[in-house]
Amino acid sequence: MTTLGKDVTIMWLGHGTFHMTTPEGKGILVDPWIEGNPVCPDELKSRVCEHLAAIFVTHAHFDHVGDLVEIAQQTGAPVICQYDLVPYFERQNISGEQLVGFNKGGTITVADVRATMTNAIHSSTTFEDGQILGLGTAAGFVFRFSNDFTIYFAGDTCVTMDMQIIADLYKPDLAILPIGDHFTMDARQAGYAMKLIRAPYVIPCHFGTFPILTGTPDQLVEACKEFGVETQVIALKPGESVA
């Protein structure tokens, strides 16, 4: 297993869902889609709520918020999301006191982590009463831990020149990027994204959940070579972690 040596554990639960443990031992869950997630290992579905200190949401698609309400109610953990999502989540019976809404460019501190919301090029919708309901816009996050270890969590996005700005401002140690294609960028675009981000490590996600998500970590490795990117691809399987 690749060792980052930064006292931060990152576990991939499949698709776009991640659990991170801070140097202080606090749990952070990003985009909670667990029960309906066909690749999330069953034995982890109850453990991800233990010591949970914060839940982050990048956007409102079902495959990123499918278990948000239940987990928020069960744990009482603050839900960190774009401001536009707050009234919708309140209608879903998440306590307003739990909801922390902010917007792109803003930074908050929760669970000893400084989190800055970044741009992502993607939609953010749900179905309600047979209609598509628009809910803000998609986002990503830069997580800066107490030991200065920095993760850029891109969320669902295509490659964008904003990634170069993120690299210049925050110098991430690790990027977490979608590679599946069809709904997000593919592996080749992700390889070019790493040329902009310049992080020494990258974890691919949002692939393999369904046949339509065809990108692979091997393709990302080849794309990094194509664009002259010196980064290590950490190809986790659902349920695996890196620390």
TrEMBL record:
Keyword hit for Hydrolase: yes
Residue ranges constituting the Metallo-beta-lactamase domain according to the UniProt record? 14-206
Residue intervals passing through the bilayer: none
Keywords assigned: Hydrolase
| UniProt GO molecular function | hydrolase activity
Pfam families noted in UniProt: Lactamase_B_2 (PF12706)
Q: Which PANTHER family match?
A: UPF0173 METAL-DEPENDENT HYDROLASE MJ1163 (PTHR43546:SF3), UPF0173 METAL-DEPENDENT HYDROLASE MJ1163-RELATED (PTHR43546)
Q: Which family does it belong to?
A: Belongs to the UPF0173 family.
- The protein here is known as UPF0173 metal-dependent hydrolase EI684_13245
